[in-house]
Specification:
There is one protein chain. By secondary structure, the chain is of the alpha+beta class. Helix content is 24%, strand content 28%. The protein has 4 helices and 14 strands. The chain has a 6-stranded mixed sheet, with helices on both faces. β9, α3 and β10 form a beta-alpha-beta unit. The two termini are 26 Å apart.
Length: 184
């Protein structure tokens, strides 16, 4: 990632820029990101699809694809975009905002890219949890693992033989980890 601007910009200014490519706003600084690789894209869409099927069937809220921005902090603005996310129905009672969601998702999914450092991933997880995200899943296509992070608890590392269940953000959701990584 590399910062492009020297003047701090706001979330509203970023939104008005339109489609400028993959980026996030990190405390007012525009940070561009490389396009994701094929493994990353396949895993992210598969998780999004599985989540969306469950959420829609149970009328729980809304699942969002990567590139969906969340305005986490203001002045300077912090806008992050997980690779998949979920917001409970009761938090969307006013409908979907036309801009970035003001706050964090209940569930954030971060799919590890080959150029992501452990520190960058940890910073994202800590940021989501510190601002109220119930769970953050770190999905690693290379290691074929999902690590579930929740505030105040030890991370849970799941491998291909495991099931992700007891998800507080999605009561009743069960995911065979092997389904996420099939065909990779």
């Amino acid at each position: 990632m590399s910062a492009l601007s020297t003047r701090l910009i706001t979330a509203d200014e970023l939104l008005k820029m339109g489609d400028i490519g993959r980026c996030e706003l990190i405390y007012g600084e525009l940070v561009m990101m490389s396009p994701a690789g094929m493994d990353h894209g396949a895993v992210a869409i598969r998780i999004g699809r599985l989540l969306d099927e469950f959420v829609e069937k149970n009328d729980l809220g809304q699942v969002f694809a990567g590139e969906t921005g969340y305005k986490v902090e203001s002045q300077p603005d912090l806008v992050r975009a997980p690779d998949a996310s979920f917001i409970r129905k009761d938090r969307l009672s006013g409908g979907l905002p036309g801009a970035y969601f003001p706050g964090v998702p209940d569930l954030a999914v971060e799919v590890v890219s080959p150029d992501d450092t452990k520190r960058e991933v940890a910073e994202k997880v800590n940021m989501w949890l510190a601002h109220g995200t119930v769970s953050c899943w770190v999905v690693d296509p290379k290691l074929m693992t999902i690590v579930v992070h929740r505030a105040g608890r030890e991370p849970i590392r799941l491998t291909m033989q495991d099931r992700l269940e007891d998800e507080p953000a999605l009561a009743g959701f069960v995911l065979e980890v092997a389904r996420v990584f099939r065909r990779l």
